[in-house]
């Protein structure tokens, strides 16, 4: 456990040693503002809730999370530091976890910094704060799933741009898994069971209730299991393909 | 003790390390030599558990690296090729990170950081970020992290590459100062390094073992071993040199006025040559014995093997 913490601290600090974290946080805040106010019609709805804010989160994460995940392993491969890291007496899984939690903490920090919105709705009306808190937790969980996908893609290549594109494409497919765009691809030849399974993987449909503040066990479990599965995939990729 | 038996590694069709076997005992400082692409780095990556062998076995202190990777990695200090590090950290942060990952207790970690930064002369850059350091400093940071836990086995991939002569000297001194009961393996293509710090040389080419012995044995393979070179003040008759007992050949470079006298195998001729020089009053500025030219031996050993392949 202490090794995970050590890796976590190093990774977390490295986001702030370069402008990466600051730019990321700034863009996250600006984009979530744009989505909430311009597309979500925060004021126009006249409701004291943050639904217009949370509804856009899957789309926000779709391109922002790959941006923060892309360097995770690609940079280690590129600079050769992976060789240093993997010859230290640590377990690969410990490194995978340390890196994941560090980036997830950054995403958590971003969400916390949107607290101004929360204060605003409380100032303007009388919202159900329990619902908002639940939606925040749900959103953070979902961001973790996006992150695990992105880090797994980063493990496959030494090129950050490739990692970003792969992560964005995979995330896009997972977001839309239940929608007509993806299902029509399979409809003609796959059985209903396959179709249902694919739809069940959709990030979007599992977030629908979360955005409304409903944390069902099923949705929470879905994201937790997604995170575990993708982290395990990263672990396998890294253990199998250490050198280039 | 390291024992490598029938080690083999391929990347697809390309065989990089081919049936390599050797043993290294505590106290051995091994110079691991070979042309670029001979498989030196790949072998080192397997010794440190970064790469897995395609076949063959590596045992370190009686343990198989496949099954006891972590335990073995605790005993090893490793400087990978190019001395990679985390550029966004300062030297101090980086060394501290390594001590934490290696689970060195705090008080001892501080002691060790102070000690190694003194040893490789890093004190002035402790709070500089590694990205902004010169190549020489980066290499020394890599060395510092390799020795920070006082490992029994030190594996250094081209430790002096890119260093200036003063820094090279420092690094060699450092390696020599390491305790006598340790194993040190250094890969290099600088031959003088082997005679300077190693008590054993292993040469590989095309992934195969070509030579395993002491640097002296390597020198003995040279035609120049025990040869004597004299420098003449001006051109004069040197045919008499060939008559000396034990001399087999002479080589005269007319531009530098240097004459090299080669002995029959196993013979020393320095005293005879100097006696002859005095006897016939040759105008000699300098006279010195040759050690054996490692460059030639190296080329001979590694290139004949290329012939075999072709």
Task: Write a structural description.
The complex is a heterodimer of chains A (244) and B (310). With 244 residues, chain A is an all-alpha fold. Chain A has one domain (2-243). Chain A is built from 14 helices and no strands. Chain A starts with a helix and ends with a helix. In chain B, strand 4 and strand 5 (63-64) form a beta hairpin. Helices cover 34% and strands 27% of the residues of chain B. Chain B folds into 2 domains: 2-220, Rossmann fold; 228-290, Alpha-Beta Plaits. Chain B is elongated. The two termini of chain B are 36 Å apart. Chain B has 10 helices and 14 strands. Chain B: Keywords: ATP-binding, Nucleotide-binding, Transport. Chain B: Belongs to the ABC transporter superfamily.
Provide a count of the helices of chain A. 14
Show the largest interface: A-B, 22 and 29 residues
Order of helices and strands of chain A: HHHHHHHHHHHHHH
**Lateral strand order in the biggest sheet of chain B:** 6-7-8-3-9-10
> What is the overall shape of chain A?
globular
Walk me through the topology:
The complex is a heterodimer of chains A (244) and B (310).
Chain A: H1 2-17, H2 20-39, H3 51-54, H4 57-69, H5 71-79, H6 81-86, H7 92-113, H8 115-124, H9 129-156, H10 160-176, H11 180-187, H12 192-200, H13 203-211, H14 217-240
Helix pairs in contact in A: 1-7, 2-4, 2-7, 4-9, 4-10, 5-9, 7-9, 7-14, 9-10, 9-13, 9-14, 13-14
Chain B: E1 2-11, E2 14-24, E3 29-33, H1 40-47, E4 55-60, E5 63-64, H2 69-75, E6 76-79, H3 91-101, H4 106-119, H5 135-147, E7 153-157, H6 165-177, E8 183-188, H7 191-197, E9 200-205, E10 208-213, H8 215-220, E11 228-232, E12 247-253, E13 258-263, H9 270-279, E14 284-289, H10 294-309
Parallel strand pairs in B: 3-8, 3-9, 6-7, 7-8
Antiparallel strand pairs in B: 1-2, 1-4, 4-5, 9-10, 11-13, 11-14, 12-13
Helix pairs in contact in B: 3-4, 4-5
């Amino acid at each position: 456990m202490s090794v995970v913490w050590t890796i976590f601290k190093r990774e977390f600090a490295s986001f702030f040693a370069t402008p990466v974290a600051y730019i990321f946080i700034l863009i996250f805040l600006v984009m979530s503002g744009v989505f909430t106010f311009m597309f979500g019609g925060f004021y126009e709805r006249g409701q004291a809730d943050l639904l217009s804010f949370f509804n856009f989160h899957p789309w926000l994460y779709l391109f922002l999370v790959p941006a923060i995940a892309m360097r995770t392993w690609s940079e280690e491969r590129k600079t050769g530091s992976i060789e240093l890291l993997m010859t230290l007496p640590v377990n690969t899984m410990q490194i995978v976890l340390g890196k994941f939690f560090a980036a997830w903490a950054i995403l958590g920090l971003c969400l916390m910094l949107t607290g101004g919105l929360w204060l605003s709705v409380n100032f303007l009306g009388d919202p159900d704060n329990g619902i908002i808190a639940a939606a925040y937790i749900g959103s953070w969980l979902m961001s973790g799933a996006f992150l695990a996908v992105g880090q797994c893609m980063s493990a496959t290549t030494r090129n950050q741009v490739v990692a970003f594109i792969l992560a964005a494409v995979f995330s896009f497919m997972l977001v839309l898994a239940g929608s007509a765009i993806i299902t029509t691809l399979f409809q003609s030849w796959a059985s209903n069971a396959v179709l249902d399974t694919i739809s069940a993987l959709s990030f979007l449909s599992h977030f629908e209730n979360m955005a409304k503040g409903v944390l069902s066990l099923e949705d929470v479990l879905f994201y937790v299991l997604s995170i575990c599965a993708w982290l395990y995939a990263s672990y396998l990729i890294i253990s199998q393909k250490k050198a280039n | 003790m390291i024992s490598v038996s029938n080690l083999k590694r391929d990347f697809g069709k390309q065989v990089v390390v081919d049936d390599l076997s050797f043993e290294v005992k505590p106290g051995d400082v091994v110079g691991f030599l070979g042309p670029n692409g001979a498989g030196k780095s790949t072998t080192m990556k397997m010794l440190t558990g970064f790469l897995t062998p395609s076949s063959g076995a590596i045992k370190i202190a009686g343990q198989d690296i496949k099954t006891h990777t972590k335990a073995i990695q605790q005993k090893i200090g490793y400087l990978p090729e190019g001395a990679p590090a985390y550029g966004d950290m300062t030297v101090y942060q980086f060394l501290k990170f390594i001590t934490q990952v290696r689970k060195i207790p705090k008080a001892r970690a501080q002691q060790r950081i102070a000690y190694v930064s003194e040893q490789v002369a890093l004190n002035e850059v402790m709070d500089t970020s590694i990205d902004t350091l010169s190549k020489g400093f980066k290499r020394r940071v890599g060395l510092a992290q390799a020795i920070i836990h006082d490992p029994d086995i030190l594996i250094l991939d081209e430790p002096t590459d890119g260093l200036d002569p003063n820094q090279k000297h420092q690094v060699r001194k450092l390696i020599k100062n390491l305790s006598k009961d340790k194993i040190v393996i250094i890969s290099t293509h600088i031959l003088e390094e082997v005679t300077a710090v190693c008590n054993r040389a292993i040469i590989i080419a095309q992934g195969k073992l070509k030579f395993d012995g002491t640097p002296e044995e390597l020198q003995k393979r040279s035609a120049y071993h025990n040869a004597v070179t004299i420098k003449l003040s001006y051109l004069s008759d040197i045919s008499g040199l060939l008559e000396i007992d034990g001399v087999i050949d002479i080589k005269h470079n007319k531009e530098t006025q240097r004459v090299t006298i080669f002995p029959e195998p196993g013979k020393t001729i320095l005293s005879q040559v100097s006696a002859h020089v005095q006897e016939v009053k040759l105008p000699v500025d300098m006279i010195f014995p040759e050690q054996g030219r490692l460059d030639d031996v190296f080329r001979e050993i590694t290139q004949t093997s290329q012939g075999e392949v072709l």
